[in-house]
Design brief:
Blueprint lengths: L5 H20 L12 E2 L6 E2 L6 E6 H6 L15 E6 L1 E10 L15 E5 L2 E3 L12 E8 L13 E7 L7 E9 L3 E9 L6 E11 L4 E3 L5 E2 L2 E15 L2 E16 L3 E2 L5 E3 L22 E16 L4 E19 L15 E20 L5 E23 L6 E27 L2 E20 L10 H6 L5 E16 L4 E12 L19 E14 L4 E13 L3 E7 L2 E7 L3 E13 L5 E15 L3 H12 L4 E2 L2 E2 L21 E9 L1 E3 L2 E12 L21 E12 L5 E8 L7 E5 L2 E4 L4 E9 L1
Parallel strand pairs: 6-9, 13-18
Antiparallel strand pairs: 1-2, 3-8, 4-5, 5-16, 6-7, 8-9, 10-11, 10-42, 11-12, 12-15, 13-14, 15-16, 16-19, 17-18, 19-20, 20-21, 21-22, 22-23, 23-24, 24-25, 25-26, 26-27, 27-28, 28-31, 29-30, 31-32, 32-35, 33-34, 35-37, 36-37, 37-38, 38-39, 39-42, 40-41
């Protein structure tokens, strides 16, 4: 809060954790109840309770119980994780951990919260929201990941681990229906060919009719139409070598148009944009796209693990992903005076995004078994081509004009070398040291499309304005941690970790002298915590207190270009954040499982650029005034009252509670479950503040989810599940763009039948 002492807050959190851990350790017993959870957060298999990192991990069964069907569903299920579906683009999720995130899906912005599938980094946000099918577990790591993972991130990482082919013939099929015409089908089968050649094939299909009616056409929009296939082949030629090859194809049509509630609280869409509306306005094939958003991804992964000797193993991970991302959406709504069918602020895009990565990783132990280490080399090449256009409508006059219609090409080459070792320096004491060196080069170019109207953009003109078309960065990111085992069931740790997120260009600029690159953001995060299994393994409390300073946070701000004020992404401030995160599981009796995830944080911009402070002072003195020729108020992170805005998506608290109870009646095993997700109010736009009247503040939010699973003794493998998400059908705002608020998904129900064989 304003005026609070972050160090005092952190010290209080630390004291609470240590007192609770020490007291609980003395009560530990010897009986069981909690499920053992294995994670690979340190690039090797470990018990969750042995890892000195803030992690929340879910198995496939836990994901199903929490109704996590795609990556966006993780939002509100993880302490201090918030997010939203991107404006218009449902295949893209903006995820924020501890106040660090990115709402921009254009290819010149990197991700502060990285997503990995089987150790392969997904470089683009365009298709980071994908359906979960045949997932073994998901690990959400909070805080900077600067040492062991493929790309450096400042906020955290989502590590998705898929199920591998089994040695026996087995699988499942599932079909379901639900609200808004939802139809789902999923299935997977393990087909072992021999003892040394194993295969797995998985597929899913999800469709619905959409939940918001476009008034001008009567068409239902914000619909979903997704298909995915995955083939896994595992070859085990010797006892010491394992080869895994995975091929995946996903075609996902998922749109997020601005929608509002009518008098009957039905979701409606006011914009009049239709297929063909922009033919002759924008250039090329993109103008003829149907209204909506579609991402098609093809991915291939080859992993080869070789056991060199009893102490050392070598792993090669090769990944290739290609995403074609096309959309025609309106990033705003229609105002009553605007009657054009071309949309209010239409966005049109055809993107081609390809990445190749190669990692060589060594895992080992010292002969004395007092040191465990991992070291590796990493390379990634990324090529992006984006043909995109946007237009604007003047609200007061209805005048429509093309802002820019251009093709951008940008690429990345990055190399890294890393190592980390856990050294047992004394009985019950482990010291961790890690270091990563990253070298990367980015290039950028943009040209106005032939025959296009709007800004006359060109790489030559950008370079002539003194703006570099190549960025280079060399960064060292260390990590240190100290871990002490209070008992066999309780450990405490302290750590310091460095991370960074690359710089880039504000690629949506519409003037050649406005592509001024923004610098990398860099973070130091300090943590202290405990991992405790208590009361005979009936209660698990994993708590982490953190204090983080992010230098040069990448957010929009005003800059002066030849005497003209513009809004663009830059590095106008640092972000200070401190807080506490608790993951708890309680199994008071067999069959009853209660979980809680609690996140507390106190985020604030500090070291603010003087230009921003001047802007705020002018606004406070005269809200209708101008700052260097441009409106001073309600722009970037100065709110309409001249206050420095609250950091985006940093609620003071997030709470996730769930309970399930398994019992049997007359040959039927029933498992009802209930979940509540709540958060304090928070900024959903960069100008958000508690005093906001401009739609950039969320208000307090509470979601209720519930479900019932039934298994039948008479038919082994058969189960039926009915559930509801957002059961009260709340219409909470998820994000804001200008004067418009985007509402989160409406309430829904579904029923599914699964047969496991």
């Amino acid at each position: 809060k304003e005026g609070s002492d972050p160090m005092r807050t952190l010290n209080a959190c630390i004291a609470s954790i240590l007192v609770a851990s020490s007291a609980a350790a003395s009560h530990a017993q010897d009986q069981g109840g909690l499920e053992e959870v294995t994670v690979t957060a340190q690039r090797r298999s470990q018990s969750l309770q042995d890892v000195p990192i803030a992690i929340t991990a879910f198995t496939s069964e836990q994901l199903a119980a929490r109704q996590v069907f795609d990556t966006y569903d993780l939002v509100r299920n993880i302490p201090n994780l918030t997010g939203n579906a991107n404006v218009g683009v449902g295949t893209s999720s903006s995820l924020y951990v501890r106040g660090l995130g990115n709402a921009e899906s254009i290819a010149t912005f990197d991700l502060p919260v990285g997503t990995y599938v089987d150790d392969v980094y997904i470089s683009r946000q365009n298709h980071n929201n994908f359906s979960m099918f045949d997932v073994e577990r998901i690990e959400v790591l909070r805080g900077p990941q600067g040492t062991l993972f493929g790309r450096n991130t400042t906020g955290g990482a989502i590590n998705v681990v898929m199920k591998k082919p089994g040695t026996e013939y087995q699988g499942y099929v599932e079909a379901g229906v639900g609200r808004f015409g939802l139809v789902t089908a999923r299935g997977s089968v393990d087909l072992p060919i021999s003892d040394t050649l194993l295969t797995k094939f998985s597929a899913y299909r999800v469709t619905d009719d959409g939940y918001a009616k476009q008034l001008s056409t009567g068409r239902m929009l914000n619909d979903r139409d997704a298909t995915g296939f995955r083939a896994d082949v595992r070859l085990v030629p010797t006892d010491d070598v394992t080869v895994d090859f995975v091929a995946e194809y996903v075609d996902d049509r998922n749109t997020n148009f601005l929608n509002v509630l009518d008098a009957n609280e039905n979701r409606i869409i006011n914009n009049k944009l239709t297929q063909g509306s922009l033919v002759g306005v924008f250039t090329g094939a993109k103008a003829a796209l149907d209204v909506g958003n579609e991402a098609v991804t093809r991915a291939y992964t080859l992993s080869v693990q070789s056991i060199i000797n009893e102490n050392i193993s070598l792993t090669s991970i090769t990944g290739y992903r290609k995403t074609d991302h096309d959309f025609l959406v309106d990033s705003g709504g229609e105002l009553p005076r605007v009657t054009t069918t071309r949309g209010f602020t239409p966005l049109n895009n055809m993107g081609d995004h390809a990445q190749f990565s190669q990692e060589i990783k060594l895992n080992g132990k010292s002969p004395q078994r007092n040191m465990t280490w991992v070291a590796g080399l990493y390379f990634m090449n990324e090529d992006n081509s984006t043909d995109f256009a946007n237009a604007n409508t003047v609200a007061t006059t209805g005048v429509f004009s093309v802002a820019a219609d251009r093709t951008m090409k940008n690429d990345l080459k990055t190399y890294a070398i890393y190592a980390q070792a856990d050294h047992v320096i004394a009985e019950k004491v482990t010291f961790t040291t890690g270091l990563r060196y990253t070298s990367e080069t980015k290039t950028f170019g943009i040209e106005r499309n032939p025959g296009a109207t709007g800004a006359a953009l060109s790489s030559t003109a950008i370079a002539a304005a003194g703006i570099p078309l190549e960025l280079k960065e060399d960064v060292w990111t260390p990590r240190v941690a100290l871990q002490y085992d209070l008992s066999d069931d309780v450990m405490v740790f302290a750590s310091a970790t460095r991370g960074f997120k690359s710089g880039g260009w504000p690629a949506r600029a519409t003037a050649n002298n406005a592509f001024i690159p923004f610098a990398p953001e860099k973070v130091w995060s300090y943590e202290i915590g405990t991992r405790a299994d208590l009361f005979g393994d009936r209660l698990r409390i994993n708590a982490t207190a953190f204090y983080a300073i992010t230098d040069d946070i990448q957010i929009p701000a005003r800059i002066d270009i030849n005497g003209v004020q513009i809004s663009t992404t830059t590095n106008p401030a640092d972000l200070r954040n401190s807080g506490l995160e608790i993951d708890a599981v309680w199994v008071p009796v067999d069959g009853l499982n209660i979980t809680a995830g609690i996140g507390l944080q106190d985020a604030k911009y500090v070291a603010i650029n003087q230009r921003v402070l001047d802007q705020a002072a002018v606004c406070r003195a005269n809200p209708a005034g101008l700052y260097q020729g441009a409106p001073a108020c309600n722009a970037n992170f100065v709110d309409q009252f001249g206050n420095i805005a609250t950091p985006v998506r940093s609620p003071d608290y997030t709470v996730s509670l769930s309970a399930s109870y398994e019992f049997t009646v007359g040959g039927i095993t029933l498992t009802p479950n209930l979940g509540v997700n709540a958060s304090d109010e928070y900024a959903i736009g960069t100008t958000g503040s508690p005093q906001s009247t401009n739609g950039t503040w969320s208000g307090k939010q509470t979601y209720i989810n519930a479900g019932l699973n039934l298994k039948f003794a008479a038919i082994e493998g058969l189960s039926v599940t009915v559930d509801c998400r957002n059961c009260e059908d709340k219409a909470y705002p998820m994000s804001a763009l200008g004067p418009f608020q985007f509402l989160d998904r409406p309430g829904s129900w579904s029923a599914r039948v699964r047969y496991k064989f």
